[in-house]
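Q: Give me the 3D complex with phosphoric acid mono(formamide)ester.
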Amino acid sequence: MTQKDVLGLRDLSAADITEILDLGMNMKKLLRQNIKKLPHLQGKSVTTLFYENSTRTRCSFELAAKYMGAHVVNIAAATSSVQKGETLVDTGKTLDAMRNDVIVIRHPMGGAPKLLAETVKAHVVNAGDGMNEHPSQALLDMLTMREHFGGIAGLKVAILGDISHSRVAKSNLFGLTKLGAEVRMFAPRTLLPTAIDKMGAKVCASREEAVSGADVVMGLRIQLERQHAGNFPSLGEYAKYYGVNEGVLRAAKPNAIVMHPGPVNRGVELTSALIDGDMSRIEDQVLSGIAVRMAILFLLTKEEV
Ligand code: CP
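A: Here is the predicted complex, encoded as structure tokens.
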């Protein structure tokens, strides 16, 4: 990989995405064998800098770095000098002065990781910035699909839920279309960005149209923390008219898989039966998350080994 940073899949080439997925597949095989002591990041320092809550992303970046022998520091903005008024740029300069090799950042403002990347010598990985991108999530989703189906090209991927506020939807759209998949999207009009078709998505008029013949059915969380009033009447009505249930899923291909980046609003985007059912790959996505983040961290730093 030639890039200094991983800020989004809009700017990553198909070749770079494939290189990450190839290595991610190998890392996942090692994790399945319970191999959690590798030398790839020995002598390197990785800091996670989170201005928003996280369970999966922060924890899996930490484990990925530790499994490969890195020193890891975790900073939550809520308990750091950010609370004393320190700017992102000054925080970045401080972390750079400490000789960090990689900074993994989550921030509520789109573009914050780019600003940090322009400030620091360390490699910067975007762990989710506002409504912009969440590249490592899309890469782990793609790894999960590739492992199940043997490839990405030609897959029909239906993404349903709060697409407007979703950085996961955008990163998946960029990554999946670069590798030759068809990405269908369905949401209430109030939760669908107007230009999403110009970005390569096939916008569907109903959940049935989106799911019909799909290989992958991905639910997206209704982001209650980012909603303005009136986007939909209630969670109950969202589930009834826009959510994916067993009846809707019957239109997908027989070997289709159900995915969700998490955290899930159970019974809203997907029914509990689908979340816990045989077609669900939600827990497998979590394992893919560590594997793909191991691949990202190694590929960013390997030239310096
Ligand atoms: N999918 C995801 O980003 O989850 P977290 O918010 O728990 O990191």
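A quick observation: The first helix runs from residue 14 to 32.
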